[in-house]
Amino acid sequence: MLLCVTASHQTASFELLERLSRTPDDVASTIVGMTPCVQGAVVLATCNRFEAYVEMDEPVTVAGAIGVEAVLEAVESATGIAATDLDGAYAVHSGRRVAEHLFSVASGLESVVSGEGEIAGQVRRALKSARKDGTTSPELERLFQRASQAQRKVKNVTALGRAGRSLVRLALELADSRIADWSAERVLLVGTGAYAAVTLATLRERGAVDISVYSPSGRAEVFAAKHGIRPVAADDYAHTAARSSLLITCTTATEPVLGPQHLQLPTSIAAVGCPISAAAGTTGAPNRLVVDLGMPRNVDPEIATLEGVALLDLETIRLHAPLEELQATDAARTVVREAADVFHVVGARQSVTPQVVALRSHIFGLLDTEINRARARGDEDGRVEQALRHLAGVLLHTPTVRAHELAAAGRADEFTSALAALYDIAPQAPAAEADDAATA
């Protein structure tokens, strides 16, 4: 049984998501270690969501509650966030609903900006991390691999990818209303991760040319050399920040890297005169804009209290997100639903495979016995054997098809019961399970 516990911008406050984004890398292994019922776990933690995908043992009636409890306990153990603090801030999906949800997430349908592209890579990295930590399972592997396939199909056959915009692009579109001439802006980029490269490319699209970069982790020179911008040393960070008109932060730091102290010019410099922005010409309008793309937030909110400073953070960006382009979104959701249905049908057929194998083994065992008897009675030309094998195939066809139909309808247990009642046979446990039973 698959289970998903999800907290996102749709269910939780940004403050809570900020706390969840500090989740350590070992949460998935903590979930797996909570109870033997958990077969595997993959954790997806981004700036806008925290999700734990878990594969549970049967019985279904209790697996869901046990799985949710394991996730909440693991989160509390790793982050200190009590389960009571999460009440009402998360949703639970189980069974066939899990695939449709993850496929929607991977395709950007559940993002702050519908269709944004960064989430697809984050989904792939979540699976890679689970593989590295040994917490994935065959069914979770199949789920996440199919999610990437669904995302690619949504991108290829719908207009959502063209309609959807990344958080970076939307943030700079919101900044357009405050910036008259991007080429006149003195830009400081704080951070050198994946968002930084996207931000830099988007800034250049808009005509920004005066761009420098500072890295709290010391990677500014490498990033600057690669992208042809100026690096800022730690000793010059505050001075450069104070002289910049547009500051964009996008680091993975867990504490603010930009505060009021960085934006206040020393009196000696301010007295001489230091124009902040050539584009800031409106009387009374903020002449410095700070865009915080970090989660946890990279910027101390007190910055917004400084005179002439405007702060644009993720929560503000979410409030200004444009309406979805309904036609593209509807087409994308159709693709997602179809992919989820296929995932469920294939999984159901796989779940009934041991029963089908058991039936075929039983029938072919009887067949071999009859063929040996025919040979003993003089079936030298093989015609009797041929007829018997054909008959066995015909007899097995309908039960096999029916088994798959029942499994797709969630009634595989009926086929298992029929095998036991009619033939007194049961499917063999997988090798790993059989080994566990033998050593118990």
Order of H and E elements: EHHEEHEHHHHHEHEHEHEHHEEHHHHHH
The largest β sheet comes out as: 6 strands, parallel
List how many beta strands DSSP finds: 10
**In whole angstroms, how far apart are the ends?**
23 Å
CATH class of the largest domain: Alpha Beta
Low-confidence runs of at least 5 consecutive residues: 267-285, 430-440
Helix content class: 40-55%
The DSSP helix count reads 19
Overall domain count: 3
CATH fold annotation of the largest domain: Beta Polymerase, domain 2
Q: On the 0-100 scale, what is the average pLDDT?
A: 82
- Order of the strands making up the biggest sheet: 7-6-5-8-9-10
Q: Strand percentage, roughly?
A: 5-15%
Radius of gyration: 29 Å
CATH architecture of the largest domain: 2-Layer Sandwich
Global shape: elongated
Structural class: alpha/beta
CATH homologous superfamily title of the largest domain: Glutamyl-tRNA reductase, N-terminal domain
Describe this structure in words.
The protein has 440 residues and is of the alpha/beta class. It folds into three domains: 2-164, Beta Polymerase, domain 2, CATH 3.30.460.30; 174-319, Rossmann fold (3-Layer(aba) Sandwich); 348-439, no CATH class. The protein contains 19 helices and ten strands. It has a six-stranded parallel β-sheet, sandwiched between helices. A four-stranded antiparallel β-sheet has the order 2-3-1-4. It is elongated and about 105 Å long. The model is unreliable at 267-285 and 430-440 (pLDDT under 50).
